[in-house]
């Protein structure tokens, strides 16, 4: 059944996803739900987001995926409420293992907690966990766990400063 779903998504689903009108967010979300994605209210996917296995993705309310983002969901990807995955960002749950001989892959899930932002052209590697409120700067590489309410940048991304929200009590 899973193989049939994969073939159907690759043959029909991806094409229908990409050929939608610019502002057809609800239609794209319904299409992804039809293929097994679990998502909250008002989730927005741009039409040129690349998704390989929507049934492995869970997105919370008000999550946004920007232009040309790549979501490789060979393992589960959980994205919290009010999160942004910016343009050209890559969420990769599978990568080659350079430590072992032969053709082996590392496959691990990715978890992005509520109120987090993965900025433009950022690569998030398998097994990464972004705690609540993390902002990852543009062109960073996330490998591992990032502490809550912090701003992280670099390769690999590390905490640079605390994320402070003014006007909140």
Please state the CA-atom Rg, rounded to the nearest Å. Answer: 16 Å
At the fold tier of CATH, the topology name is: UDP N-Acetylglucosamine Acyltransferase, domain 1
Please list the strands of the largest sheet in the order they lie side by side. Answer: 2-5-8-13-16-19-20
| Global geometry | globular
* Mean pLDDT score: 93
Number of domains: 1
How many helices?
A: 2
Main sheet: strands, sense, barrel: 7 strands, mixed
Task: Report the CATH superfamily.
Answer: Hexapeptide repeat proteins
Describe the structure concisely:
It is built from two helices and 20 strands.
Question: What do these coordinates show?
Answer:
The protein is of the alpha/beta class. Helices cover 16% and strands 31% of the residues. The protein has two helices and 20 strands. It has helices at 2-18, 25-34, and strands at residues 38-39, 44-45, 50-51, 57-59, 64-65, 70-72, 77-79, 84-85, 90-92, 94-96, 105-107, 110-112, 117-118, 123-124, 129-130, 135-136, 141-142, 145-146, 150-153, 158-162. The strands form four sheets. It has a seven-stranded mixed beta sheet. β10 (94-96) and β11 (105-107) form a beta hairpin. It starts with a helix and ends in a 7-residue tail after the last strand. The mean pLDDT is 93.
Which descriptors would you attach to this protein?
single chain; 7-stranded mixed beta sheet; 169 residues; alpha/beta; UDP N-Acetylglucosamine Acyltransferase, domain 1; 6-stranded parallel beta sheet
